[in-house]
Amino acid sequence: KLEEYDFAAATVIGTVMLIFAFVSLLVINGLQVWGRHWEANPAPTV
């Protein structure tokens, strides 16, 4: 007999993947904002 699908594990895996994707987007966006900030206001050279 075929085993039943493990919906609980599939749900957890899907949720973790969604969270990872969302966090990745936030990190990339934050890096872009940070980079634009330093392009507009470069650190003074001594």
Roughly what fraction of the amino acids lie in strands?
under 5%
- Which stretches are poorly predicted, pLDDT < 50 over at least 5 residues? none
N-to-C SSE string, H for helix and E for strand: H
Fraction in helix: over 70%
What is the CA–CA distance across the termini? 75 Å
Question: What is the C-alpha radius of gyration, as a whole number of Å?
Answer: 21 Å
Q: Please, how many domains? A: 1
Write down the overall geometry.
Answer: rod-shaped
Going by helix content, strand content and strand pairing, the class is: mainly alpha
Nearest-integer average pLDDT: 89
Number of helices: 1
Describe the largest sheet.
Answer: none
What's the number of extended β-strand segments?
Answer: 0
Describe the structure.
The mean pLDDT is 89. With 46 residues, the protein is mainly α. The longest helix is centred in the middle third of the chain and has 34 residues, at 7-40. It is 74% helix and 0% strand. The chain has one domain (1-41).
